[in-house]
Specification:
Length: 111
Amino acid sequence: MKILAVVLICTVVALLLGCLMYAVLDRVMTRYDNSMNEMDYDPTGQLGYISISAVDGAVGEMKYVLHGTMRSIGVRAETGQQLAKGDRVIILKVKKGMASVTLFEREIEQL
């Protein structure tokens, strides 16, 4: 009977210490936790520049900075639109991995 009481008391004490340790570690580990949101990585509205030119429906490439990291994405020039290397552009929308862009200077003129 005494052994059963000792085992029962030790089990309860171990469970309480385990719960306490879990609570402390949970607070410490999640204090600086920033959950990733899909909207944080949406490139819409990002300013970048054309690295591979695209002319009249052709496909090119642009580079932009998102969260301190240089990223690249494919762009397609609209009919009649010329995107020369080095042009500054703004991403309007991304569809199937291809960005629709407008020239930055055009947006400034509209303001």
